[in-house]
Design a protein that fits this description.
By secondary structure, the protein is mainly alpha-helical. It has helices spanning 2-11, 16-27, 30-40, 48-56, 62-78, 82-99, 101-109.
């Protein structure tokens, strides 16, 4: 739910061009991911941040790592308020849960 709502909040107000550009990472279009990274994050393969992500990914395929890294860098560039959007969305979900906890708990016991 958090991912869905955060995605909605982040894409609100984006141009079709921005949505298409970000879609490259979602679709894992390797040639376009490579092109974007080469243009926007030259030398990314040797960065500590990329190396740490690659190490944490274990045996994930290279395109998975590049797409995740590219999406993160794209968000930093195009939606620098991304962490705040996530925090605000999570706070909203928590408020909804707190406001409806009796109904939620009642349905669990039923």
């Amino acid at each position: 739910e958090l991912e869905s709502r955060t995605g909605e909040a982040l894409t609100s107000g984006m141009s079709d061009e921005q949505l298409d550009e970000f879609g490259v990472f979602v679709d894992q279009d390797e040639s376009k991911v490579d092109g974007w990274l080469t243009t926007n994050v030259p030398g990314y393969q040797t960065s500590e941040e990329y190396s740490a992500l690659k190490s944490a990914a274990g045996d994930a395929q290279e395109i998975d790592v590049k797409s995740q890294y590219g999406a993160m860098k794209w968000l930093q560039k195009n939606r620098p308020n991304y962490p705040q959007v996530v925090a605000d969305t999570l706070a909203g979900i928590r408020k909804e849960i707190a406001a409806n906890k009796d109904a939620i708990l009642g349905s669990v016991g039923a």
